[in-house]
Amino acid sequence: MAASGQQPNYHIGHKEETLKAFELRNAGTCLGYLLPTLEALPPDFSLLDIGCGPGSITFDLARRFPKARIVGVDLGDEVIERNRANIAHFAPDSNIEFRSGNLLHPEAFLSPEELGSFDVVHEHTTLICIPDSVAGLHALMRVAKQDGGIVACREADVASQVIWPPVPESAELQERIYAMNGLDTQMGRKLLSKALDAGFRRDQVTASASVLSNITAPHRELYAGSMIAMLADENSDYRKAAAKFGYTEEQVDVLRRNMEKLIAADDGWRLCICTEIICRLGP
Ligand SMILES: C[S@@+](CC[C@H](N)C(=O)[O-])C[C@H]1O[C@@H](n2cnc3c(N)ncnc32)[C@H](O)[C@@H]1O
């Protein structure tokens, strides 16, 4: 487990195929639990989206709330450059910006005036990438407005993932990769408990759950295609883990064929439970 304030790497990486798969996400498909709360705020609210990745959720928020000040932050410089280049295309008439930064060091990407000033601090499947997720939640709490600010999180419970046709070998390697990086595939089910560990009171938190899915053929292809691309890359964490755990070429081939099976299966799908919390700061 990494100490607070440190984070070794991002285990999935920002390959183009992965970014394309994440781009399926938007506020409509992922933030059903949060949209009514945002709609009730004054239209010029400020929102920080931490671990925004390719920014499809962030851009959608900027389009839906054009008067709001939206700031997307991610560890990866390249993905932030990519997002900046996409602003003119995805959210031209909005108040959006992107910055590089590590959630665990907010003072490095926020000015002293901005720290503790955001009306809403949001993350979508970012805490699951941080070994010390309680430190991550604590940092989210610090950057939100202390009196009346909102911290909103949606986290995947990767251990609950259902894929049909069955792909047990792929699930096993995934579990090992998370463990190798000090991460927890059960982050989703522990989200509320970690929020309480980080210092939120139970009466400040509203909890809910929903499912992240890849069901249609194009959506299965984007998900499975991103896994196939990682398997083809000798430098990806997937290949490094396979090498570390002594996988033979035939075993790596089984992993690839599993994903090809998912793409081809008309009766196939990938489903993953996501947990959601809305935490309101203040008395
Ligand atoms: C699973 S992706 C989710 C991306 C986006 N939120 C979405 O759902 O489409 C997690 C993202 O969090 C970023 N990330 C991981 N650790 C981070 C940290 N400590 N600070 C900021 N971003 C981080 C990664 O670089 C990655 O882009």
Short description:
With 283 residues, the protein is an alpha/beta fold. Helix content is 41%, strand content 19%. The chain is built from 11 helices and 8 strands.
Fold and architecture overview:
- With 283 residues, this protein is α/β, with parallel strands linked by helices.
- The chain has a single domain, classed as 3-Layer(aba) Sandwich (Rossmann fold).
- It has eleven helices and eight strands.
- Strands 1, 2, 3, 4, 5, 6, 7 and 8 form an eight-stranded mixed beta sheet that branches.
- Helix 1 runs antiparallel to helix 9, helix 6 (133-143) crosses helix 8 and helix 9 runs antiparallel to helix 11 (249-264).
- The structure holds S-adenosylmethionine.
- S-adenosylmethionine binds at residues 7, 10, 12, 22, 25, 50-53, 56-57, 73-76, 79, 102-104, 124-126, 129-130.
- S-adenosylmethionine (SAM) binds at residues 7, 10, 12, 22, 25, 50-53, 56-57, 73-76, 79, 102-104, 124-126, 129-130.
- This is Methyltransferase domain-containing protein.
